[in-house]
User: Which sequence fits this backbone?
């Protein structure tokens, strides 16, 4: 009888979990029709899944020791309120046609003002980065701007569908003031299920380009993975983005493990870049293949031919076991040894291409 009760309990739990995932909108949806056919014809889509260019790269399984380290107290979250610059409304006014300003909003969220266009990359304005808010690490940094204070958004660009890069609540709030969405293959299905019209979404495969006014967006490879639910691992594509405007080149890396061949290809084809925006945090040995260590981020910048490097994917959420400021300390040291121009703006502080690259060590208490 005891075994029967346990079996029934497990069955109810599994059924309830599956029902929750299938009915909760934040998990998104799956592609079908023409979009699915395009995915099937993609060169890196095999056996119903997207593949990394380096097919030996895989996500390891965290063990108990990793979970224990994650739960341990320490310096994983700052014990002080780190400085954040509030972005004023004046930043969006009286803009010069040739100017590009880049605002890091914490973690991987980027606000980019390109000429008269206002563009967001991987915007996450929620206080958590999870489908279930009460079990997710909470944002520990303040926001540089609220959605309600943002002007009209010309475009939102997404690198992949993980919750710390594609946030359901954020997209639902932003969709009423956003014209266009640029996403990797398969991600459109999520957006359509959240009420965004298909005509306002452009899906790109690796090495595909599209024009948005004077701006060119090119989806390029990264070494990562995707998935939002229980059985959709790698069912959508992940990518990095090359942004070209007039005589300026920028690179947004999204999430990626280190792949020398990928970085070299992008650098040789599109470099030099006026600014590379690359992840440097939330790494661990067990998922090293899909998240770069800071020293590898510095090396990737060299191969990409980046004139300046802006390190992201830190200072907002605790998603790994390292100290919150370890990523920036390690990449600062690596950049010094390799003579890399590192820009380290506060959250909400403007990086002005070819004009101003902040480099204070603001993370020291």
Assistant:
């Amino acid at each position: 009888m005891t075994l029967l009760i346990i079996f029934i309990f497990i069955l109810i739990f599994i059924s309830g979990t599956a029902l929750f995932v299938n009915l909760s909108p934040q998990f998104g949806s799956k592609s079908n029709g023409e979009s699915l056919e395009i995915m099937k014809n993609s060169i890196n889509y095999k056996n119903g899944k997207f593949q990394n260019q380096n097919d030996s790269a895989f996500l390891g399984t965290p063990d108990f020791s990793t979970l224990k380290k994650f739960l341990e107290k320490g310096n994983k979250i700052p014990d002080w309120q780190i400085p954040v610059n509030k972005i004023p409304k004046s930043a969006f006014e009286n803009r010069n046609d040739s100017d590009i300003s880049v605002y890091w909003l914490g973690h991987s969220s980027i606000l980019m003002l390109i000429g008269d266009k206002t563009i967001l990359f991987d915007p996450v304005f929620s206080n958590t980065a999870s489908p279930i808010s009460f079990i997710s690490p909470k944002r520990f940094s303040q926001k540089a701007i609220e959605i309600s204070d943002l002007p009209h958004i010309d475009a939102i660009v997404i690198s992949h569908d993980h919750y710390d890069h594609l946030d359901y609540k954020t997209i639902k709030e932003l969709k009423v003031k956003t014209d266009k969405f640029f996403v990797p293959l398969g991600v459109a299905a999520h957006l359509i299920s959240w009420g965004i019209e298909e005509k306002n979404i452009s899906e790109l495969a690796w090495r595909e380009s599209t024009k948005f006014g004077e701006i060119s967006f090119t989806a390029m490879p990264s070494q990562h993975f995707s998935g939002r639910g229980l059985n959709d691992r790698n069912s959508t594509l992940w990518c990095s983005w090359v942004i070209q405007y007039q005589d300026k080149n920028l690179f947004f890396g999204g999430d990626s493990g280190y792949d020398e061949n990928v970085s070299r290809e992008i650098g040789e084809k599109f470099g030099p870049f006026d600014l590379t925006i690359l992840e440097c945090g939330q790494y661990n040995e067990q998922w090293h293949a899909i998240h770069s260590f800071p020293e590898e981020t510095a090396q990737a910048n060299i191969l990409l031919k980046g004139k300046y490097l802006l390190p992201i994917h830190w200072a907002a959420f605790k998603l790994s076991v390292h100290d919150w400021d370890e990523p920036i300390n390690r990449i600062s040291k690596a950049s010094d040894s390799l003579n890399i121009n590192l820009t380290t703006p506060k959250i909400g502080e403007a990086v002005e291409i070819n004009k101003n690259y902040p480099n204070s060590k603001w993370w020291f208490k």
